[in-house]
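ENTRY TYPE: protein
CONTENTS: sequence, structure tokens:
***
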Amino acid sequence: MHTLSTRASSQAVPDPDDPSKVTARKVYYLACGFCRWTSRDVGMADQLVASGGWQDQENPNAQRIATLQDYYRQLAQREKQEREKKKYTRRRGYFHFSDKYGLTSVAAKRRGLMSMASLNLKEGEENQTLTVPAAEPLTDVEALPDSIYTEPLVLEKVSTLSQSLANPEYQPMARGDLYPRHKHLLVRRSQRCRECEHNLSKPEFNPSSIKFKIQLVALQHVPDIRMMPLPKLVYQKECQIILTLINPVENPTKVTLLPMEKTEESEDTATIVLPEAELALAARDDAAEYGEGTDQQDFQDDPNVVVWRKANKIRFTVKVIPQKAVGDVKVSLLMKYDYKNMTGALQAEKKEPQIASLEHQVFLNFGPVSA
């Protein structure tokens, strides 16, 4: 997670036209909204533009690292050329077939490829090999400061092991010496269905936009089932559990819960008693999340099944009977609901949206059985 944000502030500077006067200049710095860290804490200079240009920390071993990279790059290139030479080396024998089957031209082409590969190195570079001086051990090690033995240790000011290893080039010991690290670029990718090859997710071409041209993820269309705090589950005793059902689409829907057929691969360790009636869900309304009041729609809910309702969410009860004395309580069920395809109905065609009845397998794990 990236918690750094750009903050703006004013800085008093002398007026270039009249040095006796002072003008305000807008500058930018980095600040963390979680730990209140700012780039000014480590002495990073403020920038005149909000787009960046922040000063990187200088690495004292940058020159040696660059030398090692050049050495191993040249070594890898030489090994690649040696493998190509071995690949195109002439084997003894079979030369009497060269004129009969026209292999002379093929050999000439191979020699031409080898000569082109040799051009990758600069002229005279084959005889030149970079020499990297060996690392010399330190004879004089810097002594610890006297404050370590005289002053008490404040753990809030000492960097943790994970923070030190996150910067292997510097490994700061104090939290005041921590610098922000470069964040890896996150690329949004398009996704297609493996069966029908339709686009499920497709971002916009503008890289600065966070919107999607197509967003057909199942999380935004399939009703969501969540578990409330669970009671104690006792072996061979009926337990009442409250589940939450959420409608993610912008049109009302009805959900029916059905038991699944038991197979040899089934991992169910309990029996579940599902409500027989349909569960009606209201349409999703983002504004209703922040408003208070009663719902305008009148749902005739069974109070023994639906215990709570608000906007597009309901809470209903199910009964679970564990069948194993040890282990987790696992059940499976079949969720059947009506899905209205709003994307296929175009305004120009004036067609009614298609309504399809879909089914999904749901597997629930209620945790271990109480002793």
About this structure: Residues 147-177 form one domain.
